[in-house]
Amino acid sequence: MGNALETAVAGLALRHPVMNASGILGYLPEHADTMASWRVSAIVSKTFTREPREGYDPPIVVKLGYGGLLNAVGLSNPGIAGLGPFVRSAKKYGIPVIVSVGGGSAVELIDVAAAAEEAGSSAVELNMSCPHFEGGGLELGRDPTIVSSVVREVSSVLRIPVIVKLGVSDKLVDSAARALEAGARALTLINTVRGMAIDVYSLRPVLSRVYGGLSGRPVHPVAVWAVYSVYRETSADIIGVGGVFTWRDAAELIVAGSRAIQVGTALVYRGPGVVARIVEGLRSWLRQIGRASLRDVVGAAHKR
Known about the structure:
Blueprint: E1 7-9, E2 12-14, E3 18-20, H1 29-37, E4 43-48, E5 61-63, E6 68-71, H2 83-91, E7 97-101, H3 106-119, E8 123-127, H4 138-141, H5 144-157, E9 162-166, H6 172-181, E10 186-189, E11 193-196, E12 198-199, E13 204-205, E14 211-216, H7 220-234, E15 238-241, H8 247-256, E16 260-263, H9 265-270, H10 274-288
Parallel strand pairs: 3-16, 4-7, 7-8, 8-9, 9-10, 10-15, 15-16
Antiparallel strand pairs: 1-2, 5-6, 6-14, 11-14, 12-13
Helix pairs in contact: 1-2, 2-3, 3-5, 5-6, 6-7, 7-8, 8-10
């Protein structure tokens, strides 16, 4: 009997649909070891930029009481020089390695993406939607024309698949379609949503950066809507991410149109064992609904 949870996205074969989301860990070699121990089906790095970034001063993370996080880390990473050691460490586990790529221009994104390919990554995930990276975040991803231009330039110089990570905007479906037309092999939906928290005693914003990215349970219904809306119009390979704490959350994104999902904030709240629990829950769910394969239920919410 085959593996019912086998799936593929952007041409990458996955033994099950659960990978980690970019952001929790992922730019040092030892981070790859830790992420592999979570039993993910692919290792996704934190966002690398061309030059090293120290990120913002603390406080940079706020743990909310309702299953959410606010963060404004500032894409801290060692730059291109750190790519080789990280990718080499991750590749020894025999699963796909996806490098998240960030930058303020197409030229910077190309430089980092090319370095990721040279280092041996399986694919790159273009971070075009970070809500707290000025000049290289939402400013890039919410304009379909810019999305098209950047993705076309990056895709034209790479042999490995390009995955585009988009956030919520009023032009999300258009941006997604333009990314695919320009050469993206898959989409990651969604990134964190801009938000903030205020300390009512000090009367000041909690984060040093004032606002940051909201992740976790509060954004899950938004992620489901985004995946459903984009899949309905494009039938794209989609990696769904946003508030996945349980197998049911993962199943919802899959039925909406995701071929794979990413887990981030749940690792903070529920620990690394959450990945295995989601995987086993999905396996049991397929048996309960009488489906032999995960592929049978991708996008099932659209079928009448």
